[in-house]
Design brief:
Pfam families: Helicase_C_3, WYL
Number of helices: 33
Organism: Streptomyces prasinosporus
Shape: elongated
Keywords: ATP-binding, Helicase, Hydrolase, Nucleotide-binding
GO molecular function, one term: helicase activity
Strand content: 5-15%
Largest sheet: 6 strands, antiparallel
InterPro entries: WYL_dom (IPR026881), XPB/Ssl2_N (IPR032830)
Distance between the termini: 23 Å
Number of strands: 26
Structural class: alpha+beta
Radius of gyration: 39 Å
């Protein structure tokens, strides 16, 4: 080192530590803690202050992985400041741990990057708020299970009692309590002397220490402690903290633990284990089948709600009864029905219609969605599911006010859901192709990456239970773990995975690179292959534009695996039609009106009934059109029974006309009207003859239509002008609706442009706030004091600065009369204005000379 070079002084505060960082490091801090950038701090001192607030520190601690959190917890019980060697000893113990030693630099680097730890390796400091959150106290034991130090536990103890403890422990007496506590602390930290002291302890006393060593460190004693407790109290191995309460001092616990702050350090994440491995071709085919079934289910759901779905509850959402009806219609359990309903809602395909009698219905976007190719329709559903914060698995549970959570209702948003879904799929993408994970290993990995909340500040303790979300989602079944299990089920249901393994189109949906696939091989026994590949690193979350490109890539991979839509059916003599695969849109729409679905599966069976044929005639089609349609789309001749059925229903269709009287019924054949009047089933309709061909009814037109159809007739509705009303199968649609916006978890992560601008602004503000004014006398001006110079001197100084390129202080009063100090580098002085680079605002600005109170040079430092 040259004589001019001096080692950099150790930072005295977090602000100074941040001031020593480069721009890349500051940018990394703002990305990892996005709450610090909104609004942009004025300077680094303000950034450091904001980074030390309780809310921000709690949020940062909650996003640490388990070992980084264990490192922070160890620092909270270490000396302040601590050395790297002391921290390593707390984590690795007296015997050392190579895995801990290898992982500690990265964990410490994470804490430094997030401004939770600052200082060099010889003076590591945990930010004060984090130390307060993680350090032990009688009300909140440390997550490590350690109690207070000897100095903290003896703070309120009498000097005489301290001297008695020192003497009983075999230490020489001292002249003051401070030196006595220091000597006792040194004894407890000395492994050799401490071992000798414990060798003298009765067996029962050692058992007491063993029960307290891993926490909680507090215990209860009576006014007359038992001999085993008295022996420990007399030597300070247990110290009283309150009447009837004793604590195991931190130094004693660390000796008994072998120097470890944690019972089980977890320096490395648990691996995700493969429960089974299948051929990739089988996985893709299975997933494609599930994807096709998902499209069919969503279409069936919204088709069932075509003429107006269930009513919206007053508090919002579906009633329990309507959810059960939907589950029966889809032939799925109620939780699965809730998933499909919520998925269609998240994709913007259904919403409430906003009418006075509010009901759910498909949106106009549903009609556009149906016209897309099948693979694109699936990609839209899968993308909406990935980003949705609404969590269908909560349906049927209760909120914080003990109200039942209903499908499509409020209270289902969980901001962690998109992140957990993406992370679960990313873990699957890290497995070899075709490998299905063991769910328990996925949960263990997620809990390591984000320990469940618990205790103070949201930080989890030693195997602690999480406090959970607003609905009490905590403990081993914490909300994130439940979402992870739901993700595995929903991804399989949606066709992103097949047989539990991530499919090729599912991998593309995440933006993960496609692995090199060998040629197809025959499947071995059990359709399982050994795992030989090294897991690939999981993909990072995608931006909106990247996600759109990934969805398009996934659709391209899925398209060849989906069955090609057919343009024909097979008509059979038993009044059924068999569709051997998915049908093209016009054929499927007409057949849905003309026939009823009898069964589903690899082939769909439709049945023709008088009611279904009448439904087609009501939609405006004639018998001749139906005959021509069936002949054009059937690979088999139209059976005579079906032709007779269509002709018979058509012959009777429209002979009766229903209008409003309340309602009337007219027919050119008075014998038919006489037959209706004589039928006992017509008694409830209130019919009476007005003319040989006209009957009046008390029932309304809709009720009269239904009653006559139940009697076996085929009436047609009539308009006020006497024309037949054509009731086409047009669906009820809501006004244009947008899909629900996901509820973000905290502030959004800023993009690179915003981060770069924020770093520049903070740097500029910091330069301005730390620069000092040099007065003509050579000393420094007081903080906030404006430079004061005459007009001539101001002009001359600014002109000289233009030639030399130096920066100056100026005092400036704006149009509102607000005064401020600015640091500018003048580049031009003309026309009564000075133009220069304003270091305070980090941009070029122009100031009127008459508003400048004066100029001053910057102090040299």
């Amino acid at each position: 080192m040259s004589t001019e070079e001096k080692p950099a002084a150790a930072p005295r505060s977090l602000a100074e530590a941040l001031r020593g960082r480069d721009d890349a490091s500051l940018a990394a801090l703002l990305r990892s803690r996005p709450d610090l950038v909104t609004p942009v701090p004025a300077d680094l001192t303000q950034l450091a202050t904001r980074a030390g607030t309780r809310a921000s520190v709690v949020r940062a601690l909650e996003r640490l992985d388990r070992f980084a959190l264990q490192t922070a917890q160890a620092l909270a019980v270490a000396a302040d400041p601590a050395t790297y060697e002391e921290l390593l000893g707390l984590l690795a113990g007296d015997d050392g741990d190579p895995a801990v030693a290898a992982a500690l630099p990265h964990a410490l680097g994470t804490l430094r990057e997030q401004a939770l730890v600052w200082g060099g390796d010889d003076r590591l400091r945990l930010v004060r708020t984090a130390r307060e959150l993680l350090s032990p106290s009688p009300q909140h034991p440390s997550p490590t299970g350690l109690g207070p130090s000897v100095r903290e536990a003896t703070a309120g103890m009498s000097p005489g009692r301290i001297q008695e403890i020192v003497a009983t422990a075999g230490l020489p007496s001292t002249h003051d309590s401070v030196s006595a506590v220091t000597a006792l602390t040194a004894l407890f930290r000395d492994r050799t002397r401490m071992a000798a002291l414990l060798d003298q302890a009765p067996h029962e006393s050692v058992e007491v220490l063993d029960r307290l060593v891993w926490g909680p460190p507090y215990g209860q004693v009576t006014a007359d402690p038992a001999p085993r407790l008295r022996w420990l109290l007399d030597r300070g191995l247990l110290l009283p903290t309150a009447p009837g309460t004793v604590v195991l001092p931190r130094e004693v616990a660390l000796h008994l633990r072998g120097g470890r702050a944690h019972r089980v350090p977890e320096p490395a994440p648990p691996s995700v284990e493969a429960a089974a491995t299948h051929r990739p071709q089988v996985v893709d085919a299975t997933a494609a089948g599930q994807a096709y079934a998902a499209l069919a289910t969503v279409e069936e759901l919204l088709k069932d709600w075509d003429e107006g779905g269930p009513a919206v509850l007053r508090a919002g959402g579906l009633s329990v009864r309507d959810l059960k009806r939907t589950a029966v219609a889809l032939d799925v359990p109620e939780p699965v029905a809730a998933f499909w309903v919520e998925l269609a809602y998240a994709a913007g395909l259904l919403a409430s219609d906003g009418e006075a009698d509010e009901r759910y219905a498909a949106t106009p976007a549903y009609d556009e969605w149906r016209e897309r190719p099948a693979a694109e329709r699936w990609a839209l559903l899968a993308t909406a599911w990935l980003a949705a914060t609404r969590t269908s698995g909560l349906v049927g549970g209760r909120d914080a006010k003990d109200r039942v959570l209903s499908a499509l209702g409020p209270g289902l948003d969980r901001s962690a859901a998109p992140e957990v879904r993406h992370r679960v799929l990313a873990l699957l993408a890290g497995l070899p192709e075709g490998a299905a994970p063991a769910p328990g290993s996925v949960l263990a990995r997620l809990r390591w990456e984000r320990p469940p909340r618990g205790g103070r500040g949201g930080a989890a303790g030693e195997g602690g239970r999480g406090a959970g979300g607003p609905s009490g989602d905590g403990g081993p079944d914490d909300l994130r773990s439940r979402i992870a299990l739901w993700t595995l089920e929903e991804a399989e249901r949606l066709g992103i995975t097949g047989r539990g393994a991530l499919s090729a189109h599912g991998r593309a949906l995440l933006g993960a690179p496609a692995p090199r696939r060998p040629e197809a091989e025959p499947e071995g026994p059990g359709d399982k292959l050994p795992v030989h590949h090294r897991p690939a690193p999981p993909p990072a979350p995608l931006s909106s534009s990247e996600q759109a490109a990934a969805a398009a890539a996934a659709a391209r991979l899925l398209a060849p695996l989906l069955p090609e839509p057919l343009d024909h059916v097979l008509l059979q003599a038993d009044l059924t039609a068999v569709a051997p695969g998915p049908l093209r849109r016009p054929l499927a729409d007409v057949l849905d009106v003309l026939a009823d679905v009898e069964s589903k599966g690899g082939a769909t069976v439709y049945r023709f009934t008088p009611g279904s044929v009448r439904r087609a005639l009501d939609s405006g089609r004639t018998a001749a059109e139906l005959h021509a349609f069936l002949a054009a789309h059937s690979r088999t001749p139209v059976p005579q029974p079906l032709a007779y059925l269509i002709d018979d229903v058509a012959r009777r269709h429209g002979r009766l006309r229903v209008g409003a009287a309340s309602a009337y019924l007219r027919c050119d054949d008075d014998a038919v009207l006489g037959e209706i009047l004589a039928d006992k089933r017509a008694a409830g309709l209130g019919l009476r003859r007005l003319a040989p061909t006209v009957l009046a009814a008390r029932a309304d037109p809709a009720g009269l239509l239904e009653g006559l159809r139940a009697m076996g007739f085929a009436p047609a509705a009539e308009s006020a002008e006497g024309d037949v009303l054509i009731t086409r199968a047009d669906a009820h649609r809501t006004p244009p609706r947008s899909a629900p916006e996901p509820v973000p978890e905290g502030p959004p992560v800023p993009d690179d442009t915003l981060v770069a601008a924020a770093v520049r602004a903070v740097r500029a503000g910091d330069r301005a706030s730390t620069a000092t004014i040099r007065t003509p006398a050579g000393d420094r001006a007081a903080d906030g004091e404006l430079p004061r110079t005459g007009a001539a001197e101001t002009l001359a100084t600014l002109q000289a600065a233009v030639l030399t390129g130096e920066a100056l202080w100026i005092g400036y009063v704006n149009a509102e009369g607000a005064a401020s100090r600015r640091v500018i580098a003048p580049v031009r002085v003309e026309g009564g204005f000075v133009t220069g680079y304003d270091h305070t605002a980090d941009e070029v600005r122009t100031y009127p000379l008459h508003r400048i109170t004066g100029v001053a040079e910057l102090a040299e430092d």
